[in-house]
């Protein structure tokens, strides 16, 4: 194996309690902490572990986003990616367009593996991985929680609703990382210094010649309906009584 | 007129309740004509169940040994070849649907609406973003096939008063061989299914061990309910992955949800927001789980659960 592409999305940090703008035009992102999508960190960690197991692979981190997404790519480089590519845009990019843009990079780089997170925690769409695989005409292993490379194939353990599924796929392929694939490493200060010297290419989105006009129109963004205020009960007897009144316990 | 193709989900014998919820979403599209497609090694039994779903007029069966363990990468080209002639293609927002539908959408070169939670019009749907902290209303182009996954917790299952016609469909597409099923290690099925159970008891990190997690199973048994878990409990190995509830686990809407030793992180809460009654048991009175609980009880779960079990035995719960 020679090359792995990893998708890195800049998203609102998972610890931030996101607020909707009063005019319904979106959520507040100004002055909010931004991070690498947690599932993308897991994706990158898996690529790093493949390399550490002795595969002489080059690991390329790719992001689609604003100029500031360079910060997240620097984090990826500090974790251990060899180089990074930013497809620069201030536009909102839908998963289908993201997949088409990734395909352009794939055509240039010819990786054997593309690893992405199973979902991004901003739009929670969970589409980009399978869409890349579809357009590329290659296998996909979504919700991957274990990855074993065997020559030109990979054996994948997937977290599915029923339990755990094992599939075998031919390479090249797209993997989408689930939570328990691994635990990403923390970056250390010397790695951050080293990362500054690693190559980070910025590509203008227009240069790829892909139509990225959103297909879906967002008409409104609103806060969820709040739940009715509850009550505190003092002990088990009171709790069981309350549940009986609601017909939940006979 | 809207013609909706719903991709049936099943285990080879039984149609999943997720499909009945998907159909229920489709019926809310004004004047929709609904077809359920059943891909299986032998679709007979599952198709018969699909035909009874209220609102379904046609069931298409596609049989073949290669459909015994459907996988998105293999199934997608088949679905695409059926999709022509439909205005909408729906699948449930399950791991099956999430694997399949985006691949279908990309092959059709159309955007997908994930986790549709309400129908505002034939091409307008609401869906949650940011772990449910915001809800967006999306409009899809009416001149293209709309591919969507349906957030099952938002829709009651369709009733079974229907009698749709069942037709075998011929699909001739090249079978991708690059993706091969090996095995599945399924959870024991003698317990109520987490996704569809009326009552769910969930345990968190506070349980401390796999052995202690048995306390949760005991309460669930007394209530006749299913068991769930927080991510922390699954990561620690106290409970298997398929029991994880939340943004990146299962999104559920039971009548009763009992969260025991779970702090109530936003990623967990998004999985339970539609539960009718939420009970929280936590020793920390400030835990965020109490903000969404209908009934909160502050205390040590290791004292409370045995008392609760005894009380439920007395009341003869079930
Ligand atoms: C990308 C991402 C995705 C995630 N997806 C999910 C998801 O799908 N589902 C999910 O659940 N989480 C998810 N999480 C994790 C989430 O942020 C929390 O870390 C997790 O839910 C915490 O689990 P917990 O409540 O069991 O543990 P903790 O937060 O550690 O809470 C334990 C609670 O138990 C209480 N407690 C301790 N001892 C006792 C006792 N003896 N009696 C009673 N109470 C006691 C404590 O007061 C505390 O409130 C995700 C996180 C990320 C970053």
Would you give an account of this structure?
The complex is a heterodimer of chains A (250) and B (318). Chain A has helices at residues 38-52, 70-79, 95-109, 128-136, 189-195, 236-245, and strands spanning 3-7, 10-12, 34-36, 58-65, 83-88, 113-117, 140-150, 153-160, 163-170, 173-177, 200-204, 217-222, 231-232. With 250 residues, chain A is of the alpha/beta class. Chain A has a single domain, classed as Rossmann fold. In chain A, helix 2 (70-79) packs across helix 5 and helix 3 packs across helix 4. The longest helix of chain A has 15 residues, at 38-52. The radius of gyration of chain A is 21 Å and the shape is globular. Chain B has 318 residues and is α/β, with parallel strands linked by helices. Chain B folds into two domains: 3-168, 3-Layer(aba) Sandwich (Rossmann fold); 199-314, TPP-binding domain (Rossmann fold). In chain B, 27% of the residues lie in helices and 28% in strands. Chain B is built from nine helices and 16 strands. The longest helix of chain B has 15 residues, at 301-315. The N and C termini of chain B lie far apart (46 Å). The mean pLDDT of chain B is 95. The interface between A and B is large, with 82 and 88 residues. The structure holds flavin-adenine dinucleotide. Flavin-adenine dinucleotide sits between chains B (204-206, 230-233, 244-249, 261-263, 265, 267-268, 282-284, 287, 300-302) and A (14, 38, 121).
